[in-house]
Amino acid sequence: MTMLKEYFTEGSIQGLTLETTNHHTEETAKQHVKNVYEKVCARDPHEEEFHQAVKEILDSLVPVLAAHPEYMKQGIVERVVEPERLISFRVPWIDDDGEVQVNRGYRVQFNSAIGPYKGGLRFHPSVNSGIIKFLGFEQIFKNSLTGQPIGGGKGGADFDPKGKSDVEIMRFSQSFMNELNQHIGPDVDVPAGDIGVGPREIGYMFGQYKKMQGGFEAGTLTGKGMEYGGSLVRKEATGYGTVYFVEEMLKAQGLSFKDCTVTVSGSGNVSIYAIEKATALGAKVVTCSDSNGYIYDENGIDVETVKRIKEVERGQIEAYVEEHPHATFIDSQEDIWSVSCDIALPCATQHEIDETAADQLVKNGVKAVGEGANMPTTLEAVDIFLDNEVQFAPGKAANAGGVAVSSLEMAQNNMGLTWSYEEVEERLHEIMKTIYANCADAAKTYGYAGNLVIGANISGFMKVADAMIAQGVV
Predict the structure, then answer these.
(1) Annotated binding-site members for substrate
(2) Where are the transmembrane segments (predicted)?
């Protein structure tokens, strides 16, 4: 079990003390979060990803709790780390050979203090209760940061869409919705897509939900097709949003994407549209990857080729070199971070940048890292970046663009409107700029100027905490 790091040690990231709080209150706050963290680890010792997510938040909250002891008195931290509801269910379906297969489905409804539960569905073999809780916990604060009225949730199944036919995916998605339908609704819980769940899967699930409910409730799922209530820019939103956030972070240091070399991991929606927007801002993106390895193109990744391979042909990224023979395919995912760059955007999955990768990036002169995926950087790697004055954009802030546009999709559904591409993208850009400003302001207010990890945690937490206090102990 990972030990909780010491707070306010001289020279550490946590080394600044607010003059407005006394020593006794600080010590009480330190002991409070230590007790909560140890209880979380003891209660579910196998959920390591969830432990990391909780620890990262708690590491930031000591000065907040010291300044606002009412949060401790009301048990806000104890309540926020425990889901309001965790649902687990079986998902039986029939494959193309006529054999019955059984997977396990999940939905965590973590916190509804500021709005209905909101968070994606992930179909991937790695999905388990701990992964879903980690993602749902992060979603609470990510959604809070957007400024939109949405709470935190997440869901999915240990089903692997890779290698499955469209009919098999349809059967699975419909069976998954047979159970999920009774737990969701426009004012209750609004799922969306995530890894392994795109417009195809959302369409199959929405069709099944509509049939079972006997009515058209467009606001129950987001990430829908434009033909039946979807929003423009939703596919691009997480990747574009990540780049917009990093752009603001760079501006604060007098820097920009222009003429920078960028490495990006992954080749799904987040990666593709991060590549597209970074390139539009003048950067040269030289890598992208999938489960088999990564492409290095010193001339800059041709994003249209990647789109066709991954979105149309649903192929493997190594096919890129067939059209761009000057590029190189390396059959390793980890080595992607050995490529020299000015800016790194991890957009694939959790824990893809560890201490070794972080050390290599720092050695190669990286100036900024922006998390497009959910928790792609280990806590130890984050510390390495911050200790070496690398600008770091945490995922709960930097990749909030996807859920922000999902919320805009909900708003359009509620009003029966469809906004233009330009209007949605402008709203997304403004949301990401506001998220950056709020994170930077919170960090400065509590004595951590420039530390966006702590700023994001504090800013996201306080809105939820205040809403919970206003609503009483429920």
Answers:
(1) 118, 139, 142, 193, 406
(2) none
